[in-house]
Amino acid sequence: MALLRVVMIAVLLAAAGCGGSGDATDVRALASWAATTDMVAAAWTQHEVPRRYSLRAVGRARQALTERGRHLDGLPAAARARVGEALQRLDRAVAELAEAIERGDRTGAVPIRARLQAEARTLGEVAAGLEARS
Amino acid sequence: MTKVFEVALGIVTSIGGFLEAGSLATSAQAGAEFGFQLLWVIALGTLCLIFLVEMSGRLAAVSHHTIASAMRERFGFNFFVVPLLTVALVSLLTLGAELGGVCMALQLATGVALQWWALPVMVLVWVLLWRGSFGLIEKGVSLLGLVTVAFLVAMFRLHAPLGEVAAGLVPRLPDHDSGRYWFLAVSILGASLTPYLFYFYSSGAIEDHWDKKDLGTNRMVATLGMSFGGILAAAVLVVAAMVFLPRGVRIESYEQVALMLIDAFGHWGFWLFVAAFGIACLGAVLEITLAVAYLVAQGFGWNWGENVKPRDAARFAATYTLALVVAMLPVVAGVDPLRLTNVSMVLSAASLPVATLPFLVLMNDPTYVKGHANGRFGNAVVLVVIVLACVLAVVSLPLELVGG
Questions:
Q1: What is the value of pTM for the model shown?
Q2: Which domain holds residue B243?
Q3: Is there a domain that residue A14 lies in?
Q4: Contact B391 A7 (CB under 8 A)
Q5: pLDDT tens, B299-313?
Q6: Domain CATH for B65
């Protein structure tokens, strides 16, 4: 019985800690993938990772962005609009990065990094705002 | 001199064999999301592991029984079937995660999808087990695993703030995402205390013909080997905290983890990671496959032993062959290896009471350990940690699955 009580208290505590942060978590994950893509771009432009890995990593990022992007219905309207716009720009930047890697064009990939960083910042700000509200 | 060499080799192979997909992934995730805050869990898990590994070696050296055979003899088969099935199922899941880790390392290196590597890796492991000896499995792969020391070197190359790192060893409550914090805590405990580890260790002690003269070696290897191994897991967490946290990267895939040594080593960082990850997982695959076969063969009273020719222990060899085939299935089916790793680590933690409590009874039974029974402190540490790990696992797994 004592063990059961401990388990129930722990469930309630954990549930309280988790409550209401689902949407912010999704936006935080989007920001994380934007930052990951920037890390891959940086490493690839500096000859630190092979091309095949870079292509796969960028492909994985696009897949994660698409999957996470589907779960934004619960966001407040203003945040949803901001995240939606950022995602569109991010998707374009990631696609251009994939093309640059495919062509082996390291110089062309350098300016894309600034765009990736900007979208990572935007998404991070939205996530921080949502976390502050919850 | 031979004794000193034996102890040194034991410690070195314990260090080289410590990291695997579970400890690497959970430490990296914890560092990326919570900085140094979860270091205390690694310390707690390592302390408990030292006790459990020392106990399993002591049981084998004094009683000449493995954990499985002693448990079956002491409690009867009807009771033993519960830990047998629990440990075997959790170990198979962990085996799938580790096999996925080897395939992922090959995918990172070549760009060829990990599903294509499942069969070649399975065949390689099977050939090593079929043709190799226990010494080759235990020492050969573990010595190669010393490449994982790269994480410790990276920690110093990145100038880790040692004061803040030390502060992470003090347990504290999370300042955000408490559900995720406890899920990662229990994943780390599950990775540190995977039951196959101490079941494998006791079988290894019997394979190496340990007796009471080896109790000192056992104590040294368990204490120093596991401590240094724990330091490696902590180094992974520290490096992840320094590389990923400032950039806001949360780990959801091994493609992300592969970037963690680049800040410290540049071009070599990527390849060092691939080598460390691949070898660490390969070592774990060999050990877990053997551990499952040991457990089943000892449980049913079959001939067993990696040093025995397969034709003289046919059912033992058939068991490890079958275990490899089963573990390969989730990799071929395209299950995400990181997700599989997380789930298997939490289930490991949840299974700890079933795997460990009967073992604790054995370690206090003079029929088996004679004058070498556990002290109160050892019993208390293991009891507290496994109950904590189990409660956290039961709570956090549903929350993680529901919350994604």
A1: 0.92
A2: 2-403
A3: no
A4: yes
A5: 999 999 988 999 999
A6: 1.10.4160.10
Flag whether residue A12 sits within 8 Å of chain B, measured between CB atoms: no
Q: Which residues of A touch B259 (CB under 8 A)?
A: 36, 39-40, 43, 49
- Which residue blocks in B221-365 are alpha helix, DSSP H? 226-243, 254-257, 262-265, 267-300, 314-332, 337-362
Q: Any idea what DSSP says for residue B140?
A: I
Min Cα distance B359 → chain A (Å) is: 21
Helix (H) or strand (E) holding B111: none
Number of domains chain B is built from: 1
Neighbour count for residue B309 (Cβ, 10 Å): 10
Q: Which portions of chain B are predicted below pLDDT 50?
A: 404
pLDDT of residue B402: 61
Give the total number of structural domains in chain A: 1
Within-domain flag for A7: no
Q: What was the pLDDT predicted at A2?
A: 45
Task: Give the distance from CA B147 to its chain's centroid.
Answer: 17
Question: Please, which residues 7-26 of chain B have a Cβ atom closer than 8 Å to chain A?
Answer: none
Residue by residue, pLDDT tens for chain A (134 residues) are 444 444 444 444 444 344 444 588 899 999 999 999 999 999 999 999 999 999 999 999 999 999 988 888 888 989 999 999 999 999 999 999 999 999 999 999 999 999 999 999 999 999 999 888 87
pLDDT tens profile B41-91 = 999 999 999 999 999 999 999 999 999 999 999 999 999 999 999 999 999
Task: Compare all CA atoms of chain B with the CA of A64 and give the residue at the minimum distance.
Answer: B252
Residue of B nearest to A22 (CA): B403
Asked if residue A92 belongs to a domain, the reply is yes
Parent domain of A109: 21-133
pLDDT of residue B98: 96
Q: Which of A27, A33, A36, A63 to mutate to test the interface with B (most CBs of B within 10 A)?
A: A36
Check: CB of residue B254 under 8 Å from CB of residue B338. Answer: yes
* Interface contact flag, A49 B259, Cβ < 8 Å: yes
Residue with the two structure tokens 């190669």: B144
Distance CA B215, CA B201 (A): 14
pLDDT attached to residue A125: 94
Task: State CA B295 to chain mean position distance.
Answer: 16
Judge whether A15 is closer than 8 Å to chain B, CB to CB.
yes
The alpha-carbon radius of gyration of chain A (Å, integer) is 18
User: A47: domain CATH number?
Assistant: 1.20.120
Between CA B86 and CA B93 the distance in angstroms is 11
Nearest to A119 by CA among A76, A83, A81: A83
User: Quick one: DSSP state of residue B175?
Assistant: S
Q: B399 and A13 in contact by Cβ < 8 A?
A: no
Contact A35 B177 (CB under 8 A): no
| Test mutation, A46, A52, A53, A125, chain B, max B CBs within 10 A | A53
Looking at residue A111, what is its pLDDT?
96
State the ipTM, two decimals.
Answer: 0.89
